[in-house]
Amino acid sequence: MVFEKIREIIAEQTGKDESEITLETNVKEDLDADSLDLFQIINDIEDEFDVSVEDPEAIVTVKDAVDFVESHKN
Amino acid sequence: MTTRIIATGASVPEQIITNDDIAKVVETSDEWITQRTGIKQRHISAGENTSHFAIETAKKLIERANVNPEDIELIIVASVTPDYGTPSLGCMVQKAIGASKAVAFDITAACSGFMFALSVADKYIQTGVYSNAIVIGAETLSKIVDWSDRTTCVLFGDGAGGAYVEKSEKEGIIKEEIGSKGEIYEILTQGYTPCANAFNDNESGVDPLWYVNMNGREVFKFATKSVVKSIDRVMENAGVTQEDIKYIVPHQANIRIVDVISNKLKIPKEKFYMNMDRFGNTSSASVPMALNELNEKGLIERGDKIILTGFGGGMTWGTMLITW
Question: What's the topology of domain B2-169?
Fold first, then answer.
């Protein structure tokens, strides 16, 4: 559930197909995303799950984002 | 009765600094700057101060509106880079154009400055205190940018833009809002001067916080969220939809911020008028400079509905729906 939503957010921001995005995907390297894309992905994740990401640099792969949300959401 | 924009004007330094020129000063590249900001070049002062560009803009406004300077009642200049602490840029403009009967002052709201200044002028006109005003946003950001900091020095440019407005029976400013979120002011600062005096040990001189300092991610987040909500509210309060809007003239900070705003509002990017590729971020001057360009190019006609929106340090934002 969390993964599906995050995948949708990442696909929308990067313009990639959802099928290209797995838990192991490195957002910057595999999806040609730059730091501003990552900002926006994190902003959307924060809004969607009502969490606050203090250290965006710690989020590198899709799994990092999913793990963060699962351990921080209420 | 409304406040209506009668004329627009702008003035920029002649000197153009390209991304390649900046790459000679700090380690960066045209590709990096273009991809992350949409900026290709900016106009940088060869020494003229902010008042020069404000005055040139005011002269154009008077000529284009075909008004007598003696009849100007109000002059408001928005700037974070005035020549002096005092006098205000407003008073310097007053002297230069001979608007001897006007009251003149400056306001500070960073990149939202022109929106705040126009909002204030609108209130004076709506309440019947004054019947016309010159409103200008003017900056020489090049003097307060740390030219060794590649994360900020690539972003900014110098220039001024403005509008002559007057009381009108025709449609003008329809709806507007300005807003502040002081609780997060630390994410974008400039111009800090330490309190050093003969009776304390503080060091005088230029503090590192004199230069533009910003937390890019937080500013990006604030900008995208505040502008989306603000445009939404103004359109809703005015009972208009995006189909009614001919152009949105946003603060020209960064093309990527505009991309996000366009996506979130589901308003096509073509409706956002952008010229940051040629002028960079000129803070309070950016919205009136872009509006002036739209006007000079003949892209808007009387009766068109336009949204002006600014966002920046403070943190502040301001959005206005006008009938051109």
Answer: Peroxisomal Thiolase; Chain A, domain 1 (3.40.47)
Q: Which residue is it, tokens 């400056």?
A: B106
How far the first Cα of chain B sits from its last, in Å, is 15
CB-CB under 8 Å, B35 with A40: no
> Got the DSSP string for B18-46?
EHHHHTTTSS--HHHHHHHH---EEE--S
**CB distance from A43 to chain B under 8 Å?**
yes
Q: Which of B19, B132, B153, B251 is catalytic?
A: B251
Is 0.85 exceeded by the ipTM?
Answer: no
E strands in B124-241: 132-140, 158-168, 173-180, 188-189, 213-214
Q: Where are the domains of chain B?
A: 2-169, 175-323
With residues binned 3-state (H G I as helix, E B as strand, rest as coil), the percentages for chain B, rounded to 5, are 40, 25, 35
CA distances, B68 to each of B74, B91, B125, B130, B161 (Å): 13, 17, 18, 15, 20
Can you tell me the distance from the alpha carbon of B62 to that of B134, in angstroms, rounded to the nearest whole number? 9
In terms of CATH architecture, what is B175-323? 3-Layer(aba) Sandwich (3.40)
Architecture of domain A2-72: Orthogonal Bundle (1.10)
Domains B2-169 and B175-323 share a fold: yes
pLDDT per residue as tens, chain B (324 positions)? 999 999 999 999 999 999 999 999 999 999 999 988 999 999 999 999 999 999 999 999 999 999 999 999 999 999 999 999 999 999 999 999 999 999 999 999 999 999 999 999 999 999 999 999 999 999 999 999 999 999 899 999 999 999 999 999 999 999 999 999 999 999 999 999 889 999 998 888 778 888 999 998 889 989 999 999 999 999 999 999 999 999 999 999 999 899 999 988 999 999 999 999 999 999 999 999 999 999 999 999 999 999 999 999 999 999 999 999
Active site residue A44: no
B96 close to B55: Cβ distance less than 8 angstroms:
yes
| B220–A contact, CB cutoff 8 A | yes
Q: Which among A17, A30, A34, A55 is annotated as catalytic?
A: A34
3-state DSSP call for residue B200? Answer: coil
